[in-house]
Amino acid sequence: MSVPKRFEGLIDSDGLRVRLDALVTEGVDGGNPAVRSKVLAVLKEVRLASRDKVQALLLADRRGVRCAERLSFVQDALIRAIYDFAVRHVYPVVNASSAERMAVTAVGGYGRATLAPGSDIDLLFLLPYKQTPWGESVVEYILYMLWDLGLKVGHATRNVEECVRLSRSDLTIRTAILEARFIWGDRPLFDDLALRFDRDVVQGTGRDYIAAKLAERDERHKRQGMSRYLVEPNIKEGKGGLRDLQTLFWIAKYFYRVKDTADLIGAGVFSKPEYQRFQRCDDFLWGIRCHMHFATGRAEERLSFDLQREIAARLGYVEKAGLRAVERFMKHYFLVAKDVGDLTLIFCSALEEEHVKQTPALNRFLDRFTRRRRRKAQGEGTPFILDHARINVAGPDVFSRDPVNLIRIFHEADRADVDFHPDALRLMTRSLRLIDDDVRNDAVANALFLDIVASRNDPERVLRRMNETGVLGRFVPDFGRIVAMMQFNMYHHYTVDEHHLRSIGELAAVEKGRLAEEIPLASELIHGIQNRRVLYVALFLHDVGKGRMEDHSLLGGKIARKLGPRFGLTPAETETVAWLVENHLVMSTVAQGRDLNDRRTIETFAEIVQSPERLRLLHCLTVADIRAVGPGVFNGWKGQLLRTLYYETEPYLAGGHSQVTRDQRVAAAKRELTDSLEGWSETEKKAYVERHYAPYWLRVDLPRKIEHATFIRQATRDRKLLATSVIPHVFEGVTEITVLADDHPRLLSAIAGACAVAGANIVDAQIYTTTDGLALDTIFVGREFADDHDEQRRGQRVSALIEKTLTGAERLPEQVERKIAGRARLKAFQIPTDVIVNNAWSDRFTVIEVSGLDRPGLLYDLTREISNLNLNIASAHIATFGERAVDVFYVTDLFGHKVDSRPRERTIHEHLMRAFDGVAQDPGRGDGRRLTA
Predict the structure, then answer these.
(1) What pTM, to 2 d.p., does this model score?
(2) Could you tell me which of 336, 624, 686 has the C-alpha nearest to residue 459?
(3) Do 852 and 776 sit in the same domain of this protein?
């Protein structure tokens, strides 16, 4: 059997047979267990050597499809050798009957003669009639040999009639046999199956098969995530992955009756450049998949963060133009995924045309009549027509005649609220070169584009189509630079351009009132904004500066100042857009990382915002931005923090903060509480209000003050020096746990350690000391259960562990170490640790901001080290952005003063840097020690 040149040197099939035959000596047959062991050893040796050669060739030539073909070729050779050995030496037949025939057939992916290193081996053992003892024995021998080689084998044993019958009723079996490929055995038997399958199954069922496979594809996309721009994509099953290309080929082979994808050119489905794009996509995706399997030693299909760096290195990517090697690799991947989407669109367009050709004559006449009526209704000479309720071009020269039509068609689709015909989308992708500087600077084109961005209909849908066709990136080149750009972190779930489009969709949903229950303030504020289009343009541009050396917010502001006049914005509008882009992260940062009850926080934020209108704009933009990061990133607690920041800042911008002195506000807060306490005597009220210092009265809202008063009163009556309370909050998505205990510098550290052991994620903490020496600490932990009763029980378990820890019933360090033992930090990410000690962010406290790579037990280690440094924590604000932790502590020394000594600040910095990395300073010895396992 001749070997194609591309497979030369991979495996010596003839030599393998000779080696196996030599194992059978006179008097010892092939079924002997000792012989079988030797056969298996030879097969393992040859298989491993061949796989090593295939991997070396892949690293050298980076040909993904060729690698998959080489692996398939090696597997074919092994199966043929096993089959031949079985029928010659183990179960030989001297005079075979017509029933003792068999064709070993590859089906499924293996049937396409492509195989990934960890793929299943799908086999069909084809028989002429029913199973015979000989056939059963041979199949069993082959399967056990393959299993002993460590292969995963999917298999079926059927005769031709069974294959035909099952194919009619089962789509999976039909698709598997559609790709059936003869490997070895009785060739006429396989040819009979191919003939019967085409005649009795395929003919006349093309449309039903297409509908079923496209429905199957849609369901698969739902399972994997509807976006092809997920930052940890599934190479095989995800949208834009290999399975999408394979679905196209299945349909093509079934409907157009082609043997190879190259035949789709002759069928008029793909042009030659489009077919070449199909090949490039297939080769690139196969290369990634093969590298992933080789790197992990298993059938890994999800391109996780842990793998992305290694695959980028294997494929030869290097850092360039401000993008890391892994980011350049992933951008290439997402561009390929986008090409897969384009090819799907082109293919579906061809299918639709084929469907129209097969429409009965009367229906075709009515369709042409309807088109003429629609064309006339829109005016003679119009560049666009409605075609089956979708916008289409009136002729092939629509864009070449007037390139502004490349923008106008999207504006028209938005105005009429219709989708796009595949033919129009296909012509757009072929006309991108027409978008030059003349089109980009055309006043009409920019006015149309501005209408699209700020549309009251569905701007996300139209902008997404603009992006998919490539028009958006050509018309706004700065946006084109972020197309398919991946951010190598766990926080952002999508590429930068996908995040932009989703944020526009989120803002439109807010404006239409669809999210009023989830985000009530933004849903109210957006209707009071004076100029809504600056908000939409700012959101369209907010991350456009990413992927370059300069800070993306500042660079984005420069880009906004350049594009604003081009889009037709006034100078004032342009400046507002630029300000929003430059400051689009500020409100989120302040809300999640600063004490919102600290007057200085509000003053500093208000100085940045400067006007109530900008505050409204920034709040709406921030909400849309966070919600578009990914599922579950925006939650009730973040929404509450943003609302609190807004409500605290809005009166300040109106001059409200300067009207009342601090003492007057404390007195007013005391009166407000005493007026609200029902069933309390005047003596009780007077005694209670004296138990709190001024910061408590200024920082805690009235409902929580009432809860605290009731809680402390009951604990006092019960003579309890240690008490806890649990209150779940549904809307905010957190559970509030309040601890009343003797004041102690290590109290928060103990609470944090108990929460770490209990698996409760602290998102915020407020610490108060009463005048009679008690600590009133409130922590907010992320909610775990939807049902309040379940969450209440969970909160009580956490609070019980806190109480055991504080009474000494639980040894915390050992508990924490056991909890996090073996849980290593994410090795895929490299984030430098940073510690900032700042005295300007608060009038009364020193603010410590610690950021770096998150890990289990981090908050416990940090709070314990802060206690070792003899600092009191007044409040803690815990934020996690994917793999990055940002923890902020408001502290004083033991006398309640700021830390204003430079040497002391340096000491804090050094100790917390070590604590962040899991090594703290022993205050008794002064040497380094491990804090956690």
Answers:
(1) 0.77
(2) 624
(3) yes
